Amino acid sequence: MNVLIVKLSAIGDVIHTLPALARLRRAFPQARISWIVERAVAELLRDHPMLDAVIEVDTRRWRKRWLARATWEEVQDALALLRHHRYDLGFDFQGLMKSAVVLWLSGAERRIGFETAALKEKASRLFLTEQVPVPADAHVIERNLALVRHVVGGSEDRGPYEFPLSISGEDRRAVEERLEVLGIQDFALLNPGGGWAAKRWPPERYGAVADFLWERYGWISLVPFGPSEEVLAQMVARASRWKKAVPFPCTLKQLAALADRARVFLGGDTGPLHLAAARGTPIVALYGPTSAQRNGPFHPEDQVIERPPASGYRYYSRRQRDAGFLDIPVYEVIAAIERRVALAEKSSALARKGGPPDS
Length: 359
Known about the structure:
Mean pLDDT: 92
Oligomer: single chain
Strand order of the largest sheet: 3-2-1-4-5-6
Shape: globular
Strand content: 15-25%
CATH superfamily of the largest domain: Glycogen Phosphorylase B
CATH architecture of the largest domain: 3-Layer(aba) Sandwich
CATH topology of the largest domain: Rossmann fold
Radius of gyration: 21 Å
Number of helices: 12
Number of domains: 2
Low-confidence stretches: none
Distance between the termini: 45 Å
């Protein structure tokens, strides 16, 4: 059996689809499973133990240079890869026109997606052969799993979600060597990014939290960043009175290795938060225009602070903007950090004694 997953972007969306991949692989251990994804986030899926093929596309760059000959050559190459295997089954986990069209172009016999009410772009239903009802208030991970259960059967998962990733020894060594050079052992992760301003907390408040973490726990605050986010990281560093906020450039897989060691993660609704949640890092999450119930952290001990947008309704498009940053006071975030750290320390102590986490 040949199976195709269509989830083109972004970081958090890809991460939230990994439990569906794990469920598919358990159900079809001998199947050939491929995933088509935007090149900007494909790093997360390269060398993945549960995937037989990763098809990388660059639709954003193609749209900017759609008249260029090189663009059409790349499109033709991607289509050839997409249609190289005759897919028995394909899933559109995105619910957009472009994702549905990609699934249709693959030639998959069964093209499965969400019911119309749950589609981000309703017209994409025209390219599906089967639509699956999903709970309106469910976490996006559960919505994705519902598509898989439609095919493989079974009830809702009761255990922890699986987030299979392939983190190389080279990535882990790169992180450890840089931490050693900086003389850092215990640290927190502060992530000021967020796609658009209404999802972000002000950099100067992250700087104040970095000072608190140093004074209270003796922890350095690492501020990881990727392309285009260095300015934000530097703003946080400058805002720290004790100069204990350290900008830390890294790849996505290096960030995963960092998250495995971090004492706590603070950030808004953005890819690094979802990656940290997948790695089991203790989290304090700051939410505004988007809903934590829909795509927030899922560990019961994680702390979420929500401030609804000024418009009064949730939205998921950067084209719909409320002015300014998330207006959450520093003291409220500090209190949430203290709660989350205390819970993490209690769980660690119980684990060392061999007792159940909830005893």
